[in-house]
Design goal:
The complex is a heterodimer of chains A (about 300) and B (about 280). Chain A is mainly alpha-helical. Chain A is about 80% helix and about 0% strand. The chains are: A mainly alpha (about 300), B mainly alpha (about 280). Chains A and B meet through helix 1, helix 2, helix 4, helix 5 and helix 6 of A and helix 1, helix 3, helix 4, helix 5 and helix 6 of B.
Chain lengths: ~300, ~280
């Protein structure tokens, strides 16, 4: 769609957009930079300033001295990948079904996948309590069979998976839609089976979109607060993830330790952004190569 | 784009049934449990849970703060998207990727740092508090942190649209004697409107559901700075025999609101797709 609109511009390199007057350009740019400074840059700098306010030694002790904090770091690094793996499998299945076949209720399914995005995480957490809690629908049965879910690590994984469910699928569906089924159909006609088609055709084609979805999903999973707040019971050293531990330390007026842990989360967010930029660059390059290749036979 | 009419590729049943089972178990079953529990209440129980003075104050705050934040996010987002697409300045790439930071940063971190910045001796609070601007532990604090969380939605929905604006249309407007401001107001702004509306709605919906950051910045005072999600949690934690039912009733109100938002967002996205074509 946008290609058609971009084409005439590219063909006329001499045509330049009307420029705004210099004072408008400088004024708006300054304003935008100021807004970003106040909204984004100062907060990030402040996280590290507060975390390191009492020196590197204290910072390190705050992070590693408290067994509950150490446990929280380990727990987040376990729960988030588990949720991501679940949602990758789901995303692949959903994208395959939605983009390669037509069936009744297909649009409804696409909408359903978006539901966790608009449900408040606290409501999601409460719903899981109503399902797995002692007064809930499955709680008594689970208890009779000796299974505890609420206030345990599985509950954290389920809540995190709920909240991050759409991220991989939402990235994959448009990617697979735009690639189209031609290559897979060709492979099929050449005698490839389902597994061969997936590993040799589909996966290589969608790998960057998939990675992008994984990055977004993982970032959200590591930062998830509302849903895990409700289902975890917030037991320090057992079910407190990093964000929950930050809140606990903050409530205990242990601000330096809260900021120390927050700085780890901020570093993980920065890492996420760097990875995202790298993937985006790869995707752009791939798209450009793709276009160049498809242009050759026409010219 | 080729359309698959016959189901020739393998894996239709497997992928569709897995998708449906996964969605049902993980999303529909819990949300169904919420709705069934709420439906089990008598009308009187439901009404007395969702329509207390405290609950009404919480809805009004949740709704009002999200609305105010989404409006501010729209203005800020339009400014940043415009500058990023149209002007060149040093470190623009870094600037551009920083817009994504609120997506990647855990909301608990945002809450922690914003509450620290705007208190009386904080980096920004030391200038703002003396002139009467209390942006920590107040309603304003909620709006500020929701702007942080919401503005990237506006920037990211507007950017591609501003990029695809036809230069010739602006040229034509200029040739017909319009000045830059008139061109912006009459020609550019109307074509940005659908995307701006989508961005606004996304930011608004995100604000309605936000919890993690607000817990830190608002102070959570009933009637004053308590949002609906916090009321659900505190009802749940009261531990009275009926408190989880009251929490469920309030949650149902939020659930209905978020389904309405989902419908609105879908409509808007469908409309802007039509616009693109």
């Amino acid at each position: 769609m946008s290609n058609a609109r971009m084409a005439p511009l590219a063909d006329k390199p001499g045509l330049r957009r009307a420029q705004d007057p210099l004072w408008v350009r400088v004024g708006l740019t300054t304003l935008a930079v100021l807004v970003m400074l106040v909204l984004v840059v100062i907060p990030v700098v402040n996280v590290f300033y507060e975390a390191l306010a009492e020196g590197l030694g204290t910072y390190w002790r705050n992070l590693t001295g408290d067994p509950d904090t150490r446990h929280a770091i380990g727990l987040t690094l376990t729960v988030a990948p588990l949720a991501v793996v679940c949602n990758v499998v789901f995303g692949l299945a959903a994208a395959w079904a939605i983009t390669r076949f037509r069936f009744p209720g297909r649009t409804l399914l696409v909408t359903l996948i978006d539901v966790p995005l608009s449900v408040s995480p606290v409501v999601a957490g409460l719903s899981l309590v109503l399902l797995f809690g002692l007064q809930g629908f499955l709680g008594p049965w689970l208890r009779a069979n000796g299974i505890e879910i609420l206030f345990t690590v599985p509950a954290l994984v389920i809540a995190t998976t709920f909240v991050t469910l759409p991220f991989v699928a939402r990235e994959l569906i448009p990617v697979m839609e735009s690639i189209g089924p031609d290559e897979e159909l060709a492979a099929l006609s050449l005698g490839a089976n389902g597994r061969q088609i997936f590993w040799r055709i589909t996966l290589p084609n969608i790998k960057w979109g998939l990675l992008y979805g994984v990055i977004l999903c993982n970032a959200r999973a590591m930062g998830e607060f509302g849903a895990v707040y409700v289902v975890s019971g917030r037991i320090a050293g057992e079910t407190n993830t990093m964000p929950l531990q930050v809140e606990l330390l903050f409530q205990d007026f242990n601000t330096p330790a809260a900021f120390a842990l927050a700085s780890v989360l901020t570093l993980l967010a920065a890492l996420t952004l760097l990875l995202k930029m790298w993937v985006e660059r790869r995707v752009r390059r791939q798209a450009a190569e793709h276009q160049a290749q498809s242009k050759v036979p026409i010219q | 784009m080729a359309r698959v009419t016959a189901r020739v590729l393998p894996g239709f049943r497997l992928s569709l049934s897995f998708t449906l089972v996964y969605l049902s178990v993980l999303v529909l079953l819990p949300l169904g449990a919420c709705i069934v529990t709420a439906a089990g209440l008598t009308w009187e129980q439901f009404r007395s849970a969702v329509w207390t003075e405290r609950a009404r104050a919480a809805y009004a705050l949740t709704f009002g703060a999200s609305l105010a934040a989404a409006l501010i996010s729209s203005v800020v987002g339009l400014l940043i998207a415009w500058v990023l697409v149209r002007y060149d300045f040093p470190a623009k790439r870094v600037f551009d990727s920083l817009v994504d930071l609120p997506f990647a940063l855990p909301t608990a971190v945002a809450g922690l740092v914003f509450s620290n910045l705007y208190v009386a001796n904080g980096w920004l609070g030391q200038f703002l508090v003396p002139v009467g601007i209390e942006a920590a532990y107040s309603r304003l604090a909620i709006v500020v942190v929701l702007v942080f969380i919401g503005f990237p939605f506006v920037v990211r929905t507007l950017q591609p649209v501003i990029e695809s604006l036809d230069a010739e249309v602006e040229e034509a407007a200029a040739l017909l004697g319009a000045n830059r401001w008139q061109t912006f107001r009459r020609v550019i702004f109307p074509s940005l409107m659908p995307a701006l509306l989508t961005g606004f709605t996304l930011a608004f919906a995100r604000g309605l559901g936000e919890y993690g950051s607000i817990v830190f910045v608002s102070g959570n005072m009933p009637f004053r700075t308590e949002i609906a999600a916090f009321l659900i949690v505190s009802r749940l934690e009261e531990g009275r025999p009926n408190s989880y039912k009251e929490a469920t009733a309030i949650a149902t109100v939020l659930l209905v609101a978020s389904f309405l938002m989902l419908v609105v967002i879908n409509r808007l996205e469908a409309r802007s797709r039509r616009w693109d074509e």
